[in-house]
Structure formats: C-alpha cells, structure tokens
Specification:
This protein is α+β, with helices and mostly antiparallel strands and 157 residues long. It has helices spanning 6-16, 26-37, 42-52, 56-65, 85-89, 92-103, 145-154; strands at 77-82, 116-121, 133-135, 138-140. The two termini are 30 Å apart. Bound molecules: FE2/S2 (inorganic) cluster.
Length: 157
C-alpha cells in the first residue's frame, strides 16, 4: 500500500490544522502524494483516508474532479499542451501532435524510455502567450514545435 514519507505525513497533519474543515486539506494532501509518487494510486486514497480521518469517497471525488491529479503513471517529464481556444488558434493542436511524433509517444501514455508523457489540456491561464505548455511545474510560452522540442530536450527529454 502506498504511504507518504514521514515528512509528507507531517505536512498533511499540519494542513489539517489550517482550515475550518478538514475537507479543505484534501487538495494539498493529494498534491503531496503526486509530488512524492508522480501520480496518485488508488491505495493512496485509502492511506489519506486513514491519515486524515476522512471518508475515502470524499477524497476520491476530489481526485477525480481535478484534471491536475494524475490517475495513472506519467513520464519523468509530464508535458501538458494547452489546446483551448487561444492556443488552438495559434497552433496548439499542431504543437501537441508534433511533440507526440518527435518523442514517439501517444497522448497520455508513457514513452518507452519512461521520460515523456504528453497530454492535451484545457486553458492554463496564459492565453496571451499562446501557444503554451506546462512541463512539470514550468510554464513555457510563445512556442513553436521547434522551440518546444529544444526546451524539452534541454530538460532531459
Ligand atoms: S487557451 Fe491556452 S492558455 Fe488559455
């Protein structure tokens, strides 16, 4: 069964004291799981349920509502290409397709070398610098396929 590190468990307990309701600590707790594991396995929900003394069903609802939580393994670099309106009008869809082709991976799958996952996502809030993508915690903006490939390669992709 997945369990957070001791440090992670302490962080979750601290989050529980910060809010009027313990339900507000679910998002930071899930973030911590994802930070430690790269994605959120089902047994992490049970672990958090015990740790936070909350029903697993509530944690599951939050997990499955928000797309920023990975429900299956992702590569070392999780590349999320925005294909919403502004980005789509500026080549976001073609950018996403070009990255899949270059790194030889299908959408939402992990590349054979475990380095890359490419996902198409909704607006990431940087419409004025479209097209853009998020790679792990970094935003990369005003992209062309060539520039995006260069950046990903520099990051170890
Ligand atoms: S449409 Fe791509 S960041 Fe908003």
């Amino acid at each position: 069964m997945f369990t957070l590190s001791a440090e992670g468990q302490e962080l979750v307990k601290k989050e529980l004291t910060r809010y009027e309701t313990p339900y507000s600590a679910i998002i930071p707790a899930l973030y911590r799981v994802q930070k430690e594991n790269g994605w959120v396995p089902e047994d992490a929900v049970l672990h958090l349920s015990q740790l936070m003394n909350l029903p697993a069903s509530h944690i599951n609802e939050v997990l499955h509502f928000y797309t920023m939580f990975n429900k299956k393994p992702v590569g070392k670099l999780h590349i999320q290409v925005c294909t919403n309106v502004s980005c789509a009008m500026n080549g976001g869809r073609e950018l996403a397709d070009a990255l899949c082709k270059r790194f030889n991976v299908k959408y939402d799958e992990v590349s054979a070398d475990r380095k890359i996952t490419i996902s198409r996502v909704e607006c990431l809030g940087s419409c004025d610098t479209a097209p853009m993508m998020q790679v792990n915690d970094r935003y990369l903006e005003n992209l062309t396929p060539e520039l995006a490939i260069k950046k990903i390669t520099e990051m170890g992709g």
